[in-house]
Amino acid sequence: MDQQFFQFAMTFRDPYKKDVLTDFANQLEDDYGFPRDHSNYADLADYLELSGEYASYMDTFDEMYQLFQERKEQANKITMKSEENEA
């Protein structure tokens, strides 16, 4: 799975829903400086911490990043099983 973190985060956007993951995703959507082509935790966390706008969202970022990693692992397992079945 080659999806970047930003693409994953955008799956949580919703103009009506009011939970922390959605609020965070909506905030990221409007931040054109966010490193949209990165998925490295340290790079993303540094950007969020240094921007100052995301201080209240750091726990939310950690939660969303964990979900991102889990989704990536699931996709990799499916790909590996698929490749094994083809062999």
List its salient traits.
single chain; mainly alpha; DNA polymerase, domain 1; 64% helix; elongated; YozE_SAM-like_sf; YozE family protein; YozE_SAM-like
Give a verbal description of the structure.
- Pfam families: YozE_SAM_like (PF06855).
- InterPro entries: YozE_SAM-like (IPR023089), YozE_SAM-like_sf (IPR036806).
- This is YozE family protein.
- The protein is mostly helical.
- It has a single domain, classed as DNA polymerase, domain 1.
- The chain is 64% helix and 0% strand.
- It is built from 4 helices and no strands.
- The longest helix is centred in the last third of the chain and has 29 residues.
- The chain starts with a helix and ends with a helix.
- The relative contact order is 0.17.
Short account of what is shown:
The protein has 87 residues and is mainly α. It has helices at residues 5-10, 20-29, 41-51, 58-86.
Write the SSE topology.
Layout: H1 5-10, H2 20-29, H3 41-51, H4 58-86
Protein name: YozE family protein
Organism: Jeotgalibaca ciconiae
InterPro entries: YozE_SAM-like, YozE_SAM-like_sf
Number of helices: 4
Radius of gyration: 15 Å
Strand content: under 5%
Helix vs. strand class: mainly alpha
Low confidence ranges = none
Order of helices and strands: HHHH
Indicate the overall shape. Answer: elongated
Q: CATH-wise, what's the superfamily?
A: YozE SAM-like
Named at the architecture level, the CATH assignment is Orthogonal Bundle
